[in-house]
Amino acid sequence: MQRRIVINIMWRFMGGSFTRLTRCFSTSPRAVGWWENASPAAKDPITGVTEAFLADTNPHKINLGVGAYRDDEGKPIVLQCVRNAEAKIAGCEFLEANATEMASSLVEESVKLAYGEHARVLKEGRLAGLQALSGTGACRLFAELQRRFYPELPIYLPRPTWSNHHNVWRDAQVPQRTFQYYHPVSKGLNFAALVDDVKNAPDGSVFLLHPCAHNPTGVDPTEEQWRDISYLFKVKNHFPFFDMAYQGFASGDLDMDAQAIRIFLEDGHLIGCAQSFAKNMGLYGHRVGCVSVLCADAKQAVVVKSQMQQIARAMYGSPPVHGLLLVSTILSDPQTKSLWVKEVKVMANRIKRMRTALRENLEKLGSPLNWEHITNQVGMFCFSGLTPDHVDRLAREFHVYMTRDGRISMAGVTTSNVSYLADAIHEVTKHDEEALNICYTSH
C-alpha cells in the first residue's frame, strides 16, 4: 500500500510522464544490479581438461579426459550402423508424424537391453519408461520423481562417482549421502566397506549403482558380489537406481554388462534405470537416452509414467527427434542391430588392447609400482592412482591431460601414443616415495 502511494505521488509530481517515472526507478540499485551477487560457477573438471588441451600447441599432446569413444587415431567415429540408420530415415517427409511412434519403439527396445529381451516384467506391462535427454537427462528425471514423492529420502551415491551425479541430485533438491566403493590402496572394490554402508543405511533408502564400467574407477563388483548386494538390498528394502552409461564397454557383451540389473530383477526388486546411447552408439551430440522404473503392477506403471511425462513437460517439453529416429531404427531393425552389437565389441576390444599395452609398456620400463589395476579395471576409464601432483606434472612437462583425480580415459590412448604416455607416467612416478608408499605392490 505504501509503495503504491509513493508511486502515485511521484506520478503527479512528474506530470504524469511515464518516461520520467521509469528513469527515476531505473537508477535504483535493484534495477542496475539484478545479478551483482552472482559469481562464476566452478568449471566442470572435464571441461577444464579439454580447454587446457585445446590451448596447448605441442604436437605430442594427449587428451585423456574425454569420456566418449575415440578410434586408434584419437578421432571420434561414426559407426556404420548409424550411417545405415541415417540412410533409412533420410526419406522421412514428416519427422513430427513419426516422433510418438518412434519414442515408444525406443523405450520398448531400450528396456529389453537393460532387463532382458524376454523378461517377464515387459509382458506384464510393469515398466514405466520415457525417452530422456541422454543419461544425464534420465538421471535428472528420476531425481525429480524422487523429490516429488520421497522428498525426505536422500540419494546414496558411491564414493567416488561421476561428478555430475552430485550436481543432478543437488539441483533437484534431493539430500545426498555417500557409500564407500573404491579402495585406494588395492585400486579395486572396497566390498567390505560397501556392505557395511548398505547395512547401516536406514531401511528403505535409495542407492545409485553403476551396473558396469563404473565411472570414474573402472571397478565393478563380481557376479557373486552383485548377488550379495542384491540380497542385502532385499533385506533392507532399499531401492536401486542403476545408471548405465557404458553398456557394452565393460565386457563387449551387452547382456553381460546388464548382468547386475538382471540379478536384481531375478530377486524381485523394484528398480529404476537410466540408459544412454551417447557412447555405445557414438551419438554424444544427439542426447538420446531412456529412463525406466519397474513398478509393482501395470496400473502403477501407468501412473508413474504420467508423472514422469509431467516432469519432462515442464523441464524441456519433448526431446529432439533426429537422434530418436537413429536409435529406434538401429534397435528395431534386426540387421542394423546385429551390426551395432559387432561394432560395440570392436570398440570394447580396442580399449582392452590399450589397457594391456599401457601396462606392458610401464612394466618394460622397470617401474617399481604395480600396474595390474590397469587391466583389472574395465570399461572406458582407468583410475590410475596418480596423485594431483603427478597429473600437474604430466600436463606441464609432457602435455598429457587428465582430471586431477588421476582418471584416464582409455579411449584417448592409441597405438601411436601409448609408449609416450607410459614414459611420461614412469618419469613422474619413478622417484616418488609417496607413490611407492601408497601404491599396493606385490613385489
Question: Helix and strand layout, with pairings?
Answer:
Layout: H1 2-13, H2 18-26, H3 29-32, H4 45-55, E1 62-63, H5 80-89, H6 95-115, H7 120-123, E2 127-133, H8 134-149, E3 155-159, H9 163-171, E4 176-180, E5 182-183, E6 188-189, H10 191-200, E7 206-209, H11 223-236, E8 239-244, H12 254-257, H13 259-266, E9 272-276, E10 288-294, H14 298-315, H15 322-332, H16 334-364, H17 372-376, E11 381-383, H18 388-398, E12 400-401, E13 407-409, H19 418-429, H20 433-438
Parallel strand pairs: 1-12, 3-4, 3-7, 7-8, 8-9
Antiparallel strand pairs: 2-10, 5-6, 9-10, 11-13
Helix pairs in contact: 5-15, 5-16, 6-15, 8-9, 8-14, 10-11, 11-13, 15-16, 16-19, 18-19
Key descriptive features of the protein:
443 residues; alpha/beta; Aspartate Aminotransferase, domain 1; seven-stranded mixed β-sheet; 20 helices; 13 strands; 51% helix; globular; disordered C terminus
